[in-house]
Design goal:
Blueprint (H helix, E strand, L loop, with lengths): L8 E8 L2 E5 L4 H9 L14 E5 L10 E5 L6 H7 L1 H5 L1 H4 L3 E4 L8 H17 L3
Parallel strand pairs: 1-4, 4-5
Antiparallel strand pairs: 1-2, 2-3
Helix pairs in contact: 1-5
Length: about 130
């Protein structure tokens, strides 16, 4: 991954069209990012399990980030986001720096970490991210 120019990653799962679970802290995802040398854009506190539940307004950042979400969105999310002025003005949305990965168990062990690593690195290397 060292040869690629990779912006900090913002990893989140949608709860609904206004809230996400964003990962950092002690999460499996943070552990993988640390081990493969990537930067997590989420530096705010997380809970014991390594995530924080926040409104999408908390995703506003002045950093050039890549937003990574996981598939299987709740059914109402896409229509709500399509109509959301706030969502459409987030810097990563405006610049198209959004990727969706297949689901990965956030509480999984080594198999989940390896799956997440493979999916993430393939996405980043393909230039989709």
């Amino acid at each position: 991954m060292a040869k690629l120019q990779i912006r900090p990653l913002l990893l989140a799962t949608f709860i609904d069209g206004r809230h996400v679970r964003v990962y950092g802290g002690s999460s499996l995802y943070q552990n993988v990012l640390d081990r493969i040398g990537l930067t997590n854009a989420w530096t705010k506190p997380t809970g014991y399990f390594g995530y924080a539940t926040v409104g999408i307004e908390e995703l506003a950042t002045d950093r050039n980030v890549q937003f990574i979400t996981f598939d299987h969105l709740p059914p109402d999310v896409k229509p709500i986001l399509r109509e959301s002025t706030l969502w459409s003005r987030l810097p990563f949305v405006r610049s198209g720096h959004i990727s969706t990965l297949p689901p990965t168990l956030m509480f999984g062990g080594m198999p989940a970490a390896l799956r997440f690593t493979r999916l993430l690195t393939a996405t980043l290397a393909s230039g989709v991210a």
